[in-house]
Design a protein that fits this description.
Number of strands: 0
Number of helices: 4
Largest sheet: none
Mean pLDDT: 85
Oligomer: single chain
Helix content: over 70%
Shape: globular
Length: 105
């Protein structure tokens, strides 16, 4: 649940920085929730078949999907939307790994 809230805040900040669009917290929370579920499902499905390459592929697919969603929902130019998706996914994976490592030790 903490990751979904962090994802929502990151998405809000990225949209404000890249495109000067304002987004409501509830909308960002819903998009963060859907992105988290889709990324997890893709990572589990592709990771079981392809291993580490499947996890990387899941991250790329989720970043592209988020970019398309941001472009269609908020009218952001597609290049900027893909940049938002890429940065969002890098931050999401980095924070997820950090939290998992902190909990493991």
């Amino acid at each position: 649940m903490l990751m979904i809230l962090i994802d929502a805040v990151v998405l809000m900040v990225l949209l404000k920085m890249v495109s000067d669009d304002d987004i409501e917290f509830v909308t960002a929370l819903v998009i963060g929730f859907v992105t988290a579920i889709a990324t997890t499902a893709l990572a589990m499905a592709l990771g079981s078949f392809l291993g580490i390459a499947g996890l990387i592929l899941a991250g790329v697919i989720a970043a592209v999907g988020l970019g398309i969603a941001v472009s269609s929902f908020f009218g952001v130019e597609i290049k900027r939307a893909m940049l938002i998706g890429l940065i969002f996914m890098i931050v999401h994976i980095g924070i997820s790994l950090g939290i998992n490592l902190a909990l493991a030790s």
